[in-house]
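Ticket closed. Logging final result for Glutaredoxin.
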Amino acid sequence: MPRPVLDESAIHPAVRPLVATLHADVVTQVREAVSDHDVVVVGMAGNPFVKKARRALDAAGVPHHDIDIGSYFSQWRRRNALKMWTGWPTLPMVFVRRQLVGGADDLQRLIASGELKQLLA
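Final structure:
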């Protein structure tokens, strides 16, 4: 399922370092959390869908690591780096065993079907 990404040869050499490092700290933070925890929910303050995902995990008795990056009014550029890295357009971003499983509704489907328990077994 390859998705189109601008080839490095189509990026001028003078801007490649900026492209490669822009908000890399937030991507590194999430990558490390995903490596260290079975379930990670990446969100932002004030987003009801992030709360929905976390409540669903709590109700299912699934421990999770939460990362919030800003709010509707702050840090949207940093969140964009995550969106470009994952290809996922919205928050939350839910990771289970190092795999992006989607957002709140996707997570609820996994819980309802029993697949989340299988992924964590």
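The chain has one domain: 10-120. No further action required.
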